[in-house]
Amino acid sequence: MTGGAVLPAVAHWPAGYGGLRDTIRQEVIARQLDEQISARYPVGQRLRILDAGMGQGTQALRLARAGHTVTGLEADPELLKAARESLATEPAGIRERVRLIEGDGRETGVHFLPGSFDVVLCHGVLMYADEPDALLAGLARMLAPGGLLSLVVRNGEALAMRPGLAGDWSGALAGFDTDVYTDDNGVKVRADRLDALTSTLAGIAAPLHAWYGVRVFTDGIPAETGLPAAEELDRLLAAEERAGRTEPYRRIAALLHLCGVRG
């Protein structure tokens, strides 16, 4: 990817989506997900994709633009409204490939038959789930044989990193001994650990196939920080993408992106 007035890789995100930190998260996850999809499916195959807890639909719309049929499931009415507003601005051919449903990721059995999807996304959802193992088991049942489960969680092994790099030594010390953190909205939620999730995925017949780190270098920047010039953003994305697949950097990333494959 080369620098220019607008980066093609980033231009597909909704206008005003968020600051640099959110942009890095969405773009790096998109590249990692595309890598896994292209490795499993023929180029041009239209996949059936479920985005459980889709937020405002950033990844769902991107995948629909790529030609896939996407179902978005979201329990928050405001986020669902934002997704519908974004969808309304898309061409008719894209709109007809997207179905948006108000509902919880735990309710997949109510809405869909087992094996209904080739790819299931669960990004930034598990930390809020009271029964995460049951949620993941339900999502795995939605996958067709050989289907891909894409899971993004907060990295419980790196909770000391953000406060430590900010010079908050009390926060850093606390981060070593907990799996709980405070999200950007001030809500206390749970982080997850790679080993535990590896065992969980094996237990629900969607064993871990690949995993990445997300936001190795940029997790500590303020949420409101805007995007740099295109060439600088290009270099930053390249560094984050490489760190997310390289030891030991990926192990201290703020987020983990795990990809399981349904047996």
Helix residue percentage: 25-40%
Instruction: Categorize the overall geometry.
Output: globular
Number of domains: 1
CATH topology: Rossmann fold
What is the CATH architecture annotation?
3-Layer(aba) Sandwich
For the sheet with most strands, the description reads:
7 strands, mixed
Instruction: Name the CATH superfamily assignment.
Output: Vaccinia Virus protein VP39
Strand content: 15-25%
Structural class comes to: alpha/beta
Annotation, overall tally of beta strands: 9
The low-pLDDT segments are 1-16
N→C terminal distance: 35 Å
Protein name: Methyltransferase
Keywords: Methyltransferase, S-adenosyl-L-methionine, Transferase
InterPro entries: Methyltransf_11, SAM-dependent_MTases_sf
Domain Methyltransferase type: 50-150
List the keywords.
263 residues, alpha/beta, Rossmann fold, two-stranded antiparallel ribbon, 38% helix, 21% strand, globular, disordered N terminus
Note the topology:
Layout: H1 8-11, H2 20-40, E1 48-52, H3 58-65, E2 69-74, H4 77-88, H5 92-95, E3 98-102, H6 108-111, E4 117-123, H7 132-141, E5 143-154, H8 161-165, H9 169-175, E6 180-182, E7 188-190, H10 194-203, E8 208-214, H11 230-243, E9 255-261
Parallel strand pairs: 1-2, 1-4, 2-3, 4-5
Antiparallel strand pairs: 5-9, 6-7, 8-9
Helix pairs in contact: 2-11
Provide a concise account of the structure shown:
By secondary structure, this protein is α/β, with parallel strands linked by helices. It has helices spanning 8-11, 20-40, 58-65, 77-88, 92-95, 108-111, 132-141, 161-165, 169-175, 194-203, 230-243, and strands at 48-52, 69-74, 98-102, 117-123, 143-154, 180-182, 188-190, 208-214, 255-261.
